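Lecture notes, part 5. Sequence design as translation. It can be helpful to think of inverse folding as translation between two languages: the language of shapes and the language of residues. The source text, in structure tokens, appears below.
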């Protein structure tokens, strides 16, 4: 797994539940790899699949994910 934090600018504020930009990460997985189950208490998570296919689980619901698709994961 390759993971790196992308640069962000603290002056840009977001509207809605999260009033500031938390962070932006690029994650590259090889076939069969997966991330550790986790949750964010105060911010949303946005997943965009650039290439390939996979599966995403939000709460107890698991769905297939294909390149070009976006998933918005709510807090908690």
């Amino acid at each position: 797994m390759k993971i790196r934090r992308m640069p962000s600018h603290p002056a840009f504020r977001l509207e809605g539940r999260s009033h500031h930009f938390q962070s932006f990460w690029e994650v590259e997985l090889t076939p069969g790899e997966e991330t550790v189950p986790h949750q964010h208490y105060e911010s949303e998570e946005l997943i965009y699949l650039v290439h390939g296919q996979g599966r995403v689980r939000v709460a107890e619901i698991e769905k297939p994910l294909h390149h070009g698709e976006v998933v918005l994961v709510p807090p908690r």
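The translated text above is only one of many valid answers, since several sequences can fold into similar shapes. The radius of gyration is 13 Å.
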